[in-house]
Structure formats: structure tokens, C-alpha cells
TrEMBL record:
Enzyme Commission no: 4.1.1.19
Transmembrane feature ranges: none
Assigned keywords, A-Z: Decarboxylase, Lyase, Magnesium, Metal-binding, Polyamine biosynthesis, Pyridoxal phosphate, Spermidine biosynthesis
Domain of life where this protein originates: Bacteria
This protein's name: Biosynthetic arginine decarboxylase
Domain Orn/DAP/Arg decarboxylase 2 N-terminal: 83-345
Gene assigned in the entry: speA
Binding site for substrate: F273, D274, V275, G276, G277, G278, L279, G280, V281, D282, Y283
Catalytic activity as recorded in UniProt: L-arginine + H(+) = agmatine + CO2
Residues recorded with modification N6-(pyridoxal phosphate)lysine: K91
UniProt-listed Pfam families: Arg_decarb_HB, Arg_decarbox_C, Orn_Arg_deC_N
Function statement: Catalyzes the biosynthesis of agmatine from arginine.
Length: 641
């Protein structure tokens, strides 16, 4: 179990049971536990099919509570003058059940929502009904978007329109006059502090959103000219998602706090200081280590790990803001944060079944090739001699000779001088040499250069029933790491080095960077597949962005989904509150403008013709047409494998 670093990334919500199963502690530890294999059993009994997203709604609630209470505690500890009002950015996961659960868990803290588009604002206006909670509107806005926000003001809600570009400001003021309601205005500042990695472009002068300092000054002028400075209530900035280095957080707060102080002194009664998102998730569980057991060098950060805790983040936000406010002698504003990833990542995972593996140079092939044939050609014999002559001292030489011999055999084959079976012998002997080399290299520090990553090259490919593009698009797009663990058998030592391939017809549909121990590796240690026995993997921490950004590559559609709750009567038990079936094939076909009825008719007509021609018996024709329609009504992923 130590291979999978569950305590590292599990953040107290996951651990390995004595049975070697992955278990969830939805309220943290100690507390009730759910054995994920019991959930798998339930999915099987319901004939739902894999892959399946499993949401632990209690984990979502626990995250909302943890963030709000961390801020609550941080404010008290530092004797801070303002309050905390968090908002959840719905773009991170817009599912109704997710948003409802977050609002319900956040109600005691007046936790609000953030919207970045008209669609999201419709959701937020429908659901965020607490007049004390904030609604923050980010993103570029057209007239409809602005009118929707003002509609929210008419309902008595605290809807704040964040000005992302200057032209939105006069537009909003005009519409406010027209609709007879005063807007609440936020100003987004482009800070020079930059995040690192993938999202560093979210800040700096050339960022897509926000106002530069001259534009902020211009905004103040517009507000004053129109006698609307009292509407300016919030200062916003966002330096990027998944901030991996706490120093960036400190810098951003310091810079943002100075901007706040100066705007206050210019007469804007700003009462909310919105630090945006960015609170990171330690997907690797190495606490900022770079995967080689070292701490990440200054400025070099690994996007999948972070070097701070929630408490440290909160402490730094509160402390740095307070320090600047005291120094500048301005009131301490209420603190707003827009954490999405840190709220949602832990609560959901994708459960998938492994249905086979591709082994390069399988044991059977190697065994067959190991028996010498007295009549075999010279090239086969010479390859055999290279393999049998391998010693710890001639590793590099043997490998180079074998590569050359394999190439020679290929050339001979192309010229018709070598048969298919003999070519197979040469290749199998080559793979044997590779396996022997990997065994000789194991545990050694100084390895011949060309043989260093042989182990990764000859790793097994485990075929898992999922689409990377649907379920973990960020891994495909920019190597974001997600923990992958077997959901069972963790009490047995894993014996196979593997990579994972998905079922799309795309060679990019693979995972070959994994969390191993506290580091990162090109292969993952998994258990040998046992004939007839299912093997289940969990793709963990997928609750942020992945659930809603996935695409339909190869027409693999949305995944089945279940929502699991702890049973309050029996803390060792759980119940499934909701089952949301994934896309059926006919649904994804319709989205591509195919009429499922039309396709069925076309195939039925073709079958009828064959029946007429006497090529197919009528009964078989009917059965085949029924079968076609049955597939169309089925799940888009592999069934019965
Ligand atoms: N707020 C804004 C303006 C954002 O652009 C984002 C995402 O990038 C977030 C909040 C959420 O950030 P995170 O998921 O890192 O908390």
C-alpha cells in the first residue's frame, strides 16, 4: 500500500483498510468509514456499468466546513476586524447536486456563489437565496449578463458585478439607472504578482481579465463623476488556479492590499477584499516536493503538489492583509475567497475496471523462443548468444548489440531472407534481454544511459474501461497528476510495472505519469490480473474541473454517476441517494445530429433487402435489427468486459 501514498494525497479522507481496500472517511478521521469496494459491489448489483463517477457528498460538505472554519479561526486568532464570506465558483463543477450540497453545508457561514457566464448566473440567481451571502459575477459581460445581475439586486441579493474591462462600468451604471436599482460594483485588479505553471497567465499586465493601475484610476474618475463611488464595494484579483508556492500567495495579498488601501484613500468605500481562487490541492501528497525526494527549487513548482496547508494559506491571507491595513491606517475589509478546486477535488473519483493487459514480450513467447533449434538461422543464433552472454559488466554492450541484431533481422525480413517465425524468435529474444537487463538494473544507481528507462518501455499496458478525454482531461492537456490506486488487493505486494491505456482509439489516451510513493514515476506498480477476477482502479480527486470539462472523444459520453452518503444510523454503512445514468449511445448520436430512429431504419432496410435476396433468414433479420437498436440504447463504454 505504501506505493500509492494514500496518506499523502488523501488529506485524511482516504486510507487503506486491513483488508487492503481503499476506504473513505467522509468526515475526516476518526469518523465513519466507507469501503469503496462495497460501493463497487452496489454498482455491480444495480447493473450500472463502469466507469462510474462516485461522489462522496459528505466529503464535499466537510471541505466547505473546513475552509469556512479555517478562516473563522484565523480571523479570531489574529484579532482581525472583518469577517469571511466565501463564494464557490460554480464553473469548477456546475452539477446541481454539487452546488446544492455546497450551499446547504455553507449556509451557517453565509457561503455564496460566483458566476462567470450568463448560464452560471441563471443557476446562481435560482439557488443563492441567502440575502447575506455574496454573489460575485466575474467574466466578460454583455447587456443581458449585467441586467441579470441587476435583477438579482432587485431581489435584495448581494450581487456584485466585478468590472473586468473598463467599458463594462459606464454600461452597468447606465443600466442601473434605467432599471432603477443601484449596482454593487467590484473592481478586478491586474496584479503583477504571478502564479506559476499552467495558470500564470491569469495575472500580470497582459492577463485576459482585470484593470491595470491606470484603468483603476480611470474607473475611480468615472465613479466620482457619476457620484456613484458609494457603489464600489469590492476589490478582486485572481493570480491563477493551483498556486503551488505559498510565497506567491503572500506576494499577491501584499500587492492587492496596497491597491485596496490606496483605493480606500481615494474615497471608494470598498468593504470586501476578494482574493480569488488558487488555494491548491496536493494531488501528489509530497507537500511541495518535486517528486525526486527534494523540495522544489525556488520558483520551480510542480503543478500537482503544493507546499502549504489550508491553515497556512488562511494565516498568510489574514496576516498580510491586516499588516498592510494597519500600516496604511485603513479599515480591515471582509475577506472573500473563491476557492473551487480545494472545495470540490476530493469528493469525487472515477471507478473503472481493468479488462486486460498488453505485455511486451510475454513470458510464453520468451519461453518458446528460449528453446534453440539446431536449424535456426544465423541471426537467431547470434541474438540468442547475446542474450545468454549478458552479464552485469557488459550491459550496455549487450543492449547495443541486441538492438543492432534486431535491426539486421528486420532488414533480412524485408528482403525476404528471414521467415515470420524466425523474426518472431529474434524479437522475443530481444524482449528477454530487455527483461533481464531491467532485472540486473533493479536497485542499482549507476545505469548505462540507453538502458535507464527500459523498464518504462517494457512496462505492461493495463487496459482500463474509461476515456481519459472525458474523465481526466487535465492529464491529457497538461500532465496534471491524479492519484490512481487499486481499490482492493493493497494487502498484496504489486508485482507488475504498468502504464494505463484507455479505450479511445487515440494513442494519447494513456496515463504514463503516476504518483509512486512520495514521488512521480512513469509506471505504476499494480497487481497481476487474475483470470476471471475483476480488478478495479480508482482515479481519485477528480471533483474539480474534470467532471465538467471532459469531452466526447470517440463518442464516449458522460459517465454513470452515483452519490453516496454515510448512513447516520450506522456509521459503517452508506446509502446511494442518487443514480444519474451516463449518456446512452443514442444521446451522443443525437448531439452529433444523427437521428437514432433514422440510423435504425437505414440498417433495417438493408437487412430487409438481404432477407428478400435470401441471404439472411427472416427471423435472423429481425434479431439483428433488434440488436442494433439495443446497442443504441446502451452505455457508451465497454460492457461485460
Ligand atoms: N475565481 C476566478 C476568477 C477564477 O478564474 C478561478 C479559476 O481559475 C477561480 C476563482 C477558482 O480557482 P480555484 O479552483 O483555483 O480555487
Amino acid at each position: 500500500a505504501q506505493h500509492y501514498n494514500v496518506p499523502g494525497w488523501g488529506a485524511g479522507y482516504f486510507s487503506v483498510s486491513d483488508k487492503g481496500h481503499l476506504v473513505v472517511h467522509p468526515h475526516g478521521q476518526p469518523g465513519p468509514t466507507i469501503d469503496i469496494m462495497d460501493v463497487v459491489e452496489d454498482i455491480r448489483e444495480r447493473n450500472l456499468g463502469f466507469p462510474c463517477v462516485v461522489r462522496f457528498q459528505d466529503v464535499l460538505r466537510a471541505r466547505v466546513k473546513a475552509i469556512n472554519e479555517a478562516f473563522g479561526k484565523g480571523l479570531v486568532e489574529q484579532g482581525y476586524g472583518g469577517k469571511y464570506f466565501g463564494v464557490y465558483p460554480v464553473k469548477v463543477n456546475q452539477m446541481r447536486e454539487v452546488v446544492e450540497e455546497i450551499l446547504d453545508a455553507g449556509a451557517p457561514y453565509h457561503y455564496g456563489l460566483e458566476a462567470g457566464s450568463k448560464g452560471e448566473l441563471l443557476i446562481v440567481l435560482g439557488h443563492n437565496t441567502d440575502p447575506e451571502a455574496l454573489t460575485v459575477c466575474n467574466g466578460y459581460k454583455d447587456e443581458e449578463f449585467l441586467r441579470l445581475a441587476l435583477l438579482g439586486r432587485k431581489l435584495g441579493r448581494k450581487v456584485i458585478v466585478v468590472i473586468e474591462k473598463l467599458s463594462e462600468l459606464p454600461h452597468l451604471l447606465r443600466l442601473g439607472d434605467e432599471m432603477g436599482v443601484e449596482p454593487l460594483i467590484g473592481l478586478r485588479s491586474k496584479l503583477t504578482t504571478r502564479g506559476t505553471g499552467k495558470w500564470e497567465g491569469s495575472s500580470g499586465d497582459f492577463a485576459k481579465f482585470g484593470l491595470t493601475v491606470p484603468e483603476l484610476i480611470h474607473a475611480v474618475r468615472i465613479l466620482k463623476e457619476q457620484k456613484k463611488e458609494h457603489c464600489a464595494r469590492l476589490l478582486h484579483f485572481h493570480v491563477g488556479s493551483q498556486l503551488t508556492d505559498i510565497r506567491v500567495v503572500k506576494d499577491a495579498i501584499n500587492e492587492g492590499a496596497r491597491v485596496y488601501a490606496k483605493l480606500r484613500k481615494m474615497g471608494l468605500p470598498i468593504e470586501y477584499f476578494d482574493v480569488g481562487g488558487g488555494l491548491g490541492v496536493d494531488y501528489v501528497g509530497s507537500h511541495g516536493g518535486n517528486g525526486n525526494g527534494n523540495n522544489a527549487a525556488p520558483g520551480v513548482t510542480i503543478a500537482s503538489t503544493v507546499n502549504y496547508t489550508l491553515e497556512e494559506y488562511v494565516g498568510d491571507v489574514v496576516y498580510n492583509l491586516q499588516r498592510v491595513c494597519q500600516n496604511e491606517q485603513v479599515p480591515e475589509p471582509h475577506i472573500v475567497s473563491e476557492s473551487g478546486r480545494a472545495v470540490t477535488a476530493h469528493h469525487s473519483c472515477v471507478v473503472m475496471n481493468v479488462f486486460g493487459h498488453i505485455e511486451i514480450g510475454s513470458q510464453e513467447q520468451i519461453t518458446a523462443a528460449s528453446v534453440a533449434d539446431p536449424n535456426e538461422s544465423k541471426v537467431v543464433r547470434e541474438m540468442r548468444e547475446i542474450v545468454t552472454g549478458l552479464t552485469p559488466r557488459n550491459k550496455a554492450e549487450a543492449y547495443h548489440d541486441a538492438v543492432a541484431k534486431k535491426e539486421e533481422a528486420l532488414q533480412m525480413f524485408k528482403l525476404g531472407l528471414l521467415g515470420l517465425e524466425e523474426r518472431a524468435m529474434v524479437e522475443s529474444l530481444f524482449w528477454k534481454l530487455c527483461r533481464d537487463l531491467v532485472a540486473l538494473n533493479r536497485g542499482k544507481k549507476r545505469l548505462p544511459r540507453d538502458t535507464r528507462d527500459l523498464g518504462d518501455k517494457i512496462a505492461d499496458q493495463y487496459m482500463a474501461n474509461f476515456s481519459l478525454f472525458q474523465s481526466a482531461p487535465d492529464h491529457w492537456a497538461f500532465d496534471q497528476l491524479f492519484p490512481i490506486v487499486p481499490l482492493h488487493r493493497m494487502d498484496e505486494p504489486p508485482t507488475r510495472d504498468c502504464t494505463i491505456v484507455d479505450i479511445t482509439c487515440d494513442s494519447d489516451g494513456k496515463i504514463d505519469r503516476f504518483i509512486e510513493g512520495e514521488g512521480v514515476d512513469e509506471t505504476l506498480s499494480l497487481h497481476a490480473l487474475e483470470p476471471g477476477q475483476p480488478y478495479y482502479l480508482g482515479l481519485m480527486l477528480t471533483g474539480a474541473y474534470q467532471d465538467v470539462m471532459g469531452d466526447m472523444h470517440n463518442l464516449f459520453g458522460r459517465v454513470n454517476e452515483i452519490h453516496v452518503f454515510v448512513d447516520d444510523e450506522d456509521p459503517e454503512d452508506f446509502y446511494i441517494e442518487e443514480v444519474i445514468p451516463g449518456d446512452r449511445i443514442e444521446q451522443v448520436l443525437s448531439r452529433m445530429q444523427y437521428g437514432p430512429g433514422d440510423l435504425a431504419r437505414r440498417v433495417k432496410n438493408a437487412l430487409d433487402q438481404k432477407v428478400k435476396d435470401g441471404a439472411i433468414r427472416p427471423k435472423e433479420g429481425v434479431q439483428l435489427a433488434d440488436f442494433f437498436e439495443q446497442v443504441m440504447r446502451g452505455y457508451t463504454y465497454l460492457a461485460g468486459v
